[in-house]
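ligand=LLP
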Amino acid sequence: MIITQKTDMICENLRRNSDGELCFAGMPLSPLAEKYGTPLYLYDEDRVRHNCRSYIEAVREGFGETARVMYASKAASFKQLYRIVKEEGLGVDVVSCGEIYTAALADFPLENAYFHSNNKTDADIEFAISRGVGYFVVDNAEELFAIDEIAAKHGIRQKIMLRITPGIDPHTYAAVATGKVDSKFGSAIETGQAKAITSLALTFDNLELCGFHCHVGSQIFDGEVYLATSRVMLRFIADMERELGFICRDLDIGGGLGVRYIESQPVINIKETILTVADEMKREAARLGITLPRISLEPGRSIVADAGLTLYTVGTVKRIPGYKTYVSVDGGMTDNPRYALYGSPYTILPVLDGEGERESCSVVGRCCESGDILQENVQLRADTERGDLLACLTTGAYHYSMASNYNRIPRPPVVMLKNGESYLAVKRESLEDIIKLDI
Ligand code: LLP
């Protein structure tokens, strides 16, 4: 099952104006480069909101009013995004004190947060409980004991869900395939560990077991993966009801829907995909004779990826006769490590384009490392030169959040675009910021 939709441009919020200039969220890109400098992360606020609404509408229609969408904020975490997803009625998935703290400072109601991670330290647990995080998604038995103890100290009964590995291979790249049995995350059904941890979780005075969670991988285009995952999870829920008398109230089936980075990839129709999964889950629950739990989804990438674009300025153009052309930009693996890490494909376009000869180029960064590549075989104008602007598309997810200061390069700012206006959401790092922790 692949439910896709047709679009002419690779991203719906992108077009070229009559001067041949690329416009994003309705705004020409050169003035933004001029105003904020490059490299520059841009976000189309309306696109984030549109993606949030697609999810909310779909889960409500498919699973009813109680269903939830928890934005996986590891995809992009800064205060303004928490404010936006809150306004759109989403909860959040947080994985660290840093994300909890950022959400809290954005006045995000943390009772609508799921706290993940396969290794929550005592300090993490203490912090999350003291900040009132709604649910812990518990990965392992050690955590149950630690959360129970800290919850007791705070005089609360902490709501938890258990992370289960349903044993589904999402046929995606191995580094993000988290639902297989051989995974650092969660307890596998196949090995009996999922049942064991469920039974253990029910024995703690200060823990309230609400249900189960699973997440099988990322950048998934095949809806079959969700059908298979939900069948396995519902069967497990039915088994736990029969064998342990545990009634599961909440089931989170994770995130992972794929987005289009290059033209050959499909555009997933979020709503249709969710409605198909919902139909199947309702049928399966009826077949198993269980009540369908309250469902939550946890999308990250598909909320923010196509709302993002990174702007770069070309520096050096190095032509190696008979071999290839390197176009170096003023960013690189520090603002986008995804090609270096996963070989991820991207679409990179010149901001100003027109007729003329093309040349296949490797677009590379400015770090002292040969692997600092943004993309190979990019078709650019043969007269590309220092000062030209390039736009890398679909950079809203896992870019700012994975950026580093390698080579002590400051991270770019995040600028939001809305109604033809731009505003700063995260400032550009300065050299002072770079050294601020050095003694
Ligand atoms: N829930 C859990 C428990 C997760 O581990 C993840 C992603 C998500 C939800 C959201 O998945 P999404 O909808 O964004 O696919 N750095 C990699 C992606 C790592 C994904 C980790 N977990 C990348 O740049 O592709």
